[in-house]
């Protein structure tokens, strides 16, 4: 697990109460404006219900914020994605955003070490009518990716991959996911600005879990910047998302 239980205790008192408010934007009013003019008027009722349920969870900080969910949905539709992979599900906000954006014959392979988290959101996902698109597998993601790579039919099989799990494994995920995504397909790495800490000096005050994992995020960002197999675009949405389009 990227964030241990002790560190989760540390997050609790200052955790975001509303996951829609997880943003690097300095102005809360401006962020609220974005939500109210762009995201909320079009948010699917089941996504709203899932978000409001997740906001009450003590570790709601982990959930994908609503504006980022909207971005994922737009990207999936723009690239006509059909076969997708998600690493890091939690209660399922990004998962449901993806499932709703996919065509009726679309598929998501969803990986998480915790079925318990997934099952919190599952009744709402079932209500949305898109649960048949989802194959959930419980357990660490790396062995599943290794297993997928063994089968050459999976080479380039995915149109879209969203990685939002243990930051200390992102580079390991990249080395596998790059083979699984098709040329022209897209990978999104979440939290690549890591609360803005990637641009702070190493002795700046920061929460322990931010400090401990910051080096992994910086290493990933350097790697992606020079990986000739992809072109990238890093956006300050949510906690930062790096989009990687496989080019060869
Ligand atoms: C940031 S949350 C995912 C948030 C989710 N995308 C959403 O929209 O709410 C990270 C998730 O990664 C899972 N995770 C942590 N380590 C993992 C691993 N090695 N393999 C698979 N999942 C892992 C955690 O259980 C947690 O649910």
TrEMBL record:
It holds the Pfam family Methyltransf_3. GO terms for biological process: methylation. InterPro entries: Cation-dep_OMT, SAM-dependent_MTases_sf, SAM_O-MeTrfase. GO terms for molecular function: metal ion binding; O-methyltransferase activity; S-adenosylmethionine-dependent methyltransferase activity. Keywords: Metal-binding, Methyltransferase, S-adenosyl-L-methionine, Transferase. It comes from the Eukaryota. Methylates caffeoyl-CoA to feruloyl-CoA and 5-hydroxyferuloyl-CoA to sinapoyl-CoA. Plays a role in the synthesis of feruloylated polysaccharides. Involved in the reinforcement of the plant cell wall. Also involved in the responding to wounding or pathogen challenge by the increased formation of cell wall-bound ferulic acid polymers. Belongs to the class I-like SAM-binding methyltransferase superfamily. Cation-dependent O-methyltransferase family. This is Caffeoyl-CoA O-methyltransferase.
